[in-house]
Each structure stands twice: as structure tokens, then as C-alpha cells.
Amino acid sequence: MPGSAQAFEQESDSSLAARVARQDEAALAALYDRHSTALYSLLRRILRDESACEEVLQDVFLHLWRNAARFDQERGELRGWLLVMARNRAISHLRKRTLGEPDDVELYAVSTDARQDTVVVQNDLVARVRGVMSQLPGEQCSLFEMAYFEGMTHSEIAERTGQPLGTVKTRLRTALTSLRRAFE
After folding, report:
1. Structural contact between residues 149 and 92, judged by C-beta atoms closer than 8 angstroms
2. Structural domains of the chain ordered from first start
3. What stretch of H or E contains 5?
4. pLDDT, tens digit, for every residue of 51-110?
5. Helix intervals (H) in the chain
């Protein structure tokens, strides 16, 4: 059937993303059919709430619909981009939902079936990262969160904040250097 998701079975993800950028709903449906199961599985492991998983999954594909033109195959595969986006949005969802409760990273570390010494090491690592991030200037911390927790590109951050791209890159590099030094 022309225009259906089945018609795109042999088409690459990047080609389908280009079609989505031109507002081709059938191409979006094909990408949804191709990747939604993996994304949903990841979201279930993080969120453990079906309605939240469905909400975040819908948000990921809505973002793809609106921003498919920003996908750059040179930087990686579409599936990876979608998985990182889903992970980051799930973490953001947990943060919003659990205001006043321990951060989802701590909950995730404590809820594992890992040996106790591994959990202690993970919790120590989380505490060290938080400590370093709390010492970063507010602007660096904010940019770092956009890049590494929201999955935004440097260009997207520059556009959102109104800062020059070079400034964004310099501040992120400085934040990463601070984190590296703390873990040496």
C-alpha cells in the first residue's frame, strides 16, 4: 500500500527522517513501528509506570516530528538518538514526578540487585557528580544538564539560550574539565 508504514520497510532511518522533516506521516509511522518497542522497553525499565512510558514515548515521537530536520546521520544512528532522547526525557519525568524525594539516579542504584559494595560505590559516584555540579557556575551547570540530561546538541542549546555557539561549547568543555579533574 503506497504511503503506508509497510511501504518503507526497505528504506533507511535517515531517509525516513528526511521524509518526516517534510511532514510525511507515513514515514513517521514507519519509524514508530521500527523503534517504538525498543524505546518503550527502555522507558519501562526507567519509569516502571505504563502511562508515564506512553506519555514519554509520545513526546519522543512528537519531538522527532517537529525536529526531524535536525537529525544528522554523521553524528550517529537515528535509533541511538531516539534512545538517548527517551532516556533523558524519562529522567526529566522522574525528576518532575518525585519532587522532594531522592533523585531517580539514587533510586535506580538502590533498587538494583547488585552486591551491597557495588551500590555503595554507585551512590558515592552519584554524590561526587552532584558535588562537582553544585560547584559549577549556574550557567555551566544549566548547559551541562541540557547537553547530557536532555540530549540537546550544542546548536540546540545555543538556540534555546540565545548564546553564541562558541560560548556554549567553551562552557561545556570547562564543565567537563571540572568533572574530569574531580575524578582523577
Report:
1. yes
2. 1-99 (1.10.1740.10)
3. none
4. 999 999 999 999 999 999 988 888 888 998 999 999 999 998 888 875 544 444 444 333
5. 13-21, 25-47, 50-67, 78-97, 104-110, 116-135, 138-148, 154-161, 165-182
